[in-house]
Design goal:
The chain is of the alpha+beta class. The protein has helices at 2-34, 121-125, 243-248; strands at residues 40-51, 54-65, 69-76, 84-88, 91-96, 101-105, 134-144, 147-156, 166-172, 178-184, 190-202, 205-215, 222-232.
């Protein structure tokens, strides 16, 4: 009986420790996520698509409101200027000024490349949330580019609108910055790796200002996203994210 009681105590201790680690992992992801959250977010971004033998650059503006709404405007190069992407709840559209046409996009396209880059539609449109759509597990501590980081495994919740089978995050212990992420498919094969650099201050928040995305199957390819400007909590109404506005926003 004493032996059985000892086993029961150990089992409760192990279960309690697992729940604590789960809570700690979620709180870490929450702190990292909230660093870049506000009622609204406006950004100006330069994107460089790097391929063997050539490089392409574009600039864009982006507005978002919580995870419900997002609007992206391409401002350069000239051949893509004026093209916009709109998300309202679970609906997605693309405005093509060259042919004066609005195209509704299927949610099945979320995992596809955005404008030929190594980012996908989900990355830019912010359809899913690392905090709300995944279970979190603290794996270890690891030093990334001189910063001690929490290594956290993210497994998608059932029926969550995500395209990944798993994501591993490296979040700095000091500033709760997301310095690295590895994305896996449903077969747990690595699809791509994200690394973040050059922490800068935007308003009263600090965040990496250069993000590099590299596909696992094409190691000579990468896309660099440089954050030129972040502005938080600007007054933006829900009506801003409309089909009419996606055609005239500048």
């Amino acid at each position: 009986m004493r032996y059985l009681s000892f086993i029961v105590v150990i089992l409760f201790f192990v279960a309690g420790t697992a729940q604590t680690k789960q809570a700690d992992a979620t709180s870490i992801v929450k702190k990292a996520t909230q660093k870049l959250e506000g009622e609204t977010l406006y950004s100006e971004v330069t994107m460089q698509v790097v391929r063997p033998g050539w490089q392409n650059e574009m600039t864009l503006k982006s507005w978002s409101k919580r995870y419900k709404y997002a609007l992206i405007l391409i401002t350069a190069p000239a051949k893509d200027k004026g093209q916009t992407y709109l998300k309202r709840e679970n609906d997605l559209w693309n405005w093509l000024p060259g042919i004066q046409k609005t195209v509704k996009l299927s949610v099945t396209l979320m995992s596809q490349s955005w404008m030929g880059s190594d980012f996908n539609n989900e990355d830019l449109i912010n359809k899913s949330s690392f905090l709300n759509d995944y279970h979190h597990k603290l794996l270890d501590m690891e030093v990334i580019r001189g910063s001690e980081c929490y290594t956290i495994e993210l497994m998608p919740k059932e029926d969550a609108p995500v395209v990944w089978g798993k994501v591993n995050l490296w979040i700095s212990k000091d500033g709760f910055d997301q310095l690295k992420a590895v994305f896996y498919d449903e077969n747990m094969e690595v699809v791509r790796t994200m690394n973040a650099f050059d922490i800068k201050k935007f308003g009263n928040k600090t965040t990496p200002s250069r993000i590099e995305m590299q596909p696992a199957d094409k190691p000579r390819n990468k896309t660099i996203m440089i954050i030129d400007n972040y502005e938080f909590d600007l007054p933006i109404s829900d009506d801003f994210f409309s089909l009419q506005n996606m055609r005239r926003v500048r």
